[in-house]
Amino acid sequence: MSLAPSPSSSRGQIIIQPPYFTSSTFIHPAREDIDQLIQLYCHQYAKTHPTHPFTLFKEIWVSQGWTWIHFKVFDARSREAFLRVVIRLFLERISANETPLNRVTALFGLYTMLSTQPSTSAPPLHAFAHVQVTRDVYDEILSLPNTLTSEYLMPIRPYAISVLSALLKAQRFHVLPGADLHPLNPRELPREIFVQDIEPGTVEPSTSASSGLASKKKGRPSKRSKTKRARDSLASLDRWLDCTNYTYQSSHAAGSTEPALVVTTHILLSHSPVTTRDNYRSQKSYLLDAIDPNFPYSVPGTSETSTGREALARANEAVVERMKKIDDEASAQGLEVGGEGGERTGLQRVERGARELGDTAARGGRGGILGLLEGAGIVEG
């Protein structure tokens, strides 16, 4: 991709054209910087449990050099593209597929990015007034405080509400149609992909610093190479788990003289997946309504219900058979699948849930194994 310099009309200085900020040359490092900012804040939050979470964020923002970001681009046309892309990258991390703490940190970054724009300078710098956001992402931002209900995230909830209220009061959001219509320009980031040119006769350097090889070998990787990559990935995963663990004191019964136990778990397990669970229930309800909208008052054997019911029964049977095969293969290797939770997680519960399909008095009568979340397959004691 060619990035020819464009001369400024006022001073004759060389500036970078706006397409640079939508290219992979800028997008990939910018995403890494934002991810580093978020991960560092999450680590410090889990480690220190601050009473003033936004003050901690500002300290990390300053220590990482983000205070100088507004002085990287001065030309108005290039600065508009620069700010638009950086703010859009922060919005990517506020989406519902991120953890609540990551989303709040990205919201803090978005707010700080907009609030620290220089208002008085000579010559004046172009300021970014409104944030273009699709309708679905806007709804996710508004619902963000509702996801901060766990004890671990309750200290940060008032600050998230305050920051979000400030953005709404300043009318910062320019709401666009839904993401399915692709209203943003460019549609995807990065738009331009930079490809390194390799001269004929030269050897492409290895992309892995730890591989110990001068060049990438052709053909299939050897068994030794696969084993080394697996070990490196496992070591990287262990380091990440160590940096993102979460320690808390478990609650104990009232009047108990025994001290509360100190429990260490992962930060992703410190809150229930409310958004994912609600989305699953919504999609499941839509599917079951399409198959049999009149359940449990539908008449069995009618053409409007028999086709959907037969397909649902076949799907239940296929899942049970697949799980039996997995259980048999695990047993042959001396392993156990799904036995950690007793009757609630074993294969027998799945089989009972599948058999409940069609029984109007059972919890799995409507969907079979699709009713496991509602208690299908559990034997009442």
Radius of gyration, in angstroms, nearest whole number: 27 Å
Amount of beta strand: 5-15%
Total number of strands: 6
Ends: how far apart? 68 Å
SS-based class: mainly alpha
Biggest sheet, strands in spatial order?
1-2
Shape descriptor reads globular
Summarize the amount of helix as a percent range.
40-55%
Could you list the spans in which at least 5 consecutive residues all have pLDDT below 50? 204-214
Set out the fold topology.
Layout: E1 6-7, E2 14-15, H1 24-48, H2 53-63, H3 76-92, H4 100-115, E3 131-134, H5 135-142, H6 157-169, E4 173-176, H7 223-243, E5 245-249, E6 262-266, H8 274-291, H9 303-332, H10 347-355
Parallel strand pairs: 3-4
Antiparallel strand pairs: 1-2, 5-6
Which features does this protein show?
two-stranded parallel ribbon, 381 residues, mainly alpha, globular
Report what the structure shows.
This protein is 44% helix and 6% strand. It has 381 residues and is mainly alpha-helical. The strands form 3 sheets. It has a two-stranded antiparallel ribbon with strand order 1-2. Strand 1 and strand 2 (14-15) form a beta hairpin. Helix 1 (24-48) crosses helix 2, helix 1 crosses helix 3 (76-92) and helix 2 (53-63) packs across helix 4. It is globular, with a radius of gyration of 27 Å. It starts with 5 loop residues before the first strand and ends in a 26-residue tail after the last helix. Residues 204-214 have low confidence and may be disordered.
